[in-house]
Amino acid sequence: MNIKTATFKISNTDYKLCPDDNKPEFAFIGRSNVGKSSLINMLTQHKSLAKTSGTPGKTQLINHFEINNEWYLVDLPGYGYAKVSKKARIVFEDFIAAYLINRNPLLNTFVLLDSRLPPQKIDMEFMSWCGEKQIPFAMIFTKIDKLSSSELQKNLAAYKKEMLKYWESLPPIFTTSSDSKFGREKVLNYIDEILKTV
Ligand code: GDP
Q: Which of 36, 41, 53 to mutate to test the pocket of ligand 1 (most atoms within 8 A of CB)?
């Protein structure tokens, strides 16, 4: 897919106030610092469409970016952990859950994972939650330029093994680097394939 135009459309916390023109949406989510803003900027070939972690006053909103006047790339706030009676539990704002569950034009959510880390409980929990709610997702491993290909293969294998403890099959998996632009074509082609089905 060729990205001809990428423009910021609207930010809010209520899925009902998101654009109502019914264009298909693809959401991106992950823990803070996973490389989400860098990936969005890399995919859209924009220096600062999405605000990176270093941006002061970065707000926690659902951000819609219109791509090629055809679809929306949706930048979602990250999830985190809260301590609830000694146990850590995954939390994310109710408005994010409401968006993911109720947003009709949402075709796929990309769950971003740091390729340098072993399977993280919080990410596994988030993907389980998506499964329970029947929210289709694909996995994107970020920052692959930061490790050797053997380390990457080892971490991917560990993730796949962990996923297969809970899932019968694996979702689509992409490996990316915002620095080298590795993976750009594959992610955009995947979006294109889904767009062709609507
Ligand atoms: P966000 O909080 O998920 O939006 O993460 P950012 O996009 O702000 O990235 C967090 C940090 O990781 C920044 O210092 C980025 O420069 C760095 N980073 C993000 N993606 C990559 C990548 O693909 N390769 C490398 N080497 N660094 C990255």
A: 53
Helix, strand, or coil (residue 87):
strand
Taking residues 100-127, report their average pLDDT.
96
Farthest-apart Cα atoms in the chain, separation? 50
pLDDT of residue 57: 52
pLDDT exceeds 80 at position 56: no
Task: Identify the residue whose tokens are 């939390």.
Answer: 91
Among protein residues, the one whose CA lies closest to atom 17 of ligand 1:
35
Pocket of ligand 1 (CB under 6 A): 30, 32-38, 52-53, 142-143, 145-146, 177-179
Domain-wise residue ranges, the chain: 6-197
Alpha carbon of 143 to ligand 1 centroid (Å): 7
pLDDT confidence bin for 58, thresholds 50/70/90: low
Q: Tell the residue number behind the tokens 């947003």, with chain if given.
A: 103
Instruction: Tell me which DSSP letter residue 63 carries.
Output: E
171 phi and psi angles, rounded to 5 deg: -75, 170
The class level of CATH for 6-197 reads: alpha beta
Instruction: Write the pLDDT tens digit of every residue in 114-133.
Output: 999 999 998 999 999 999 99
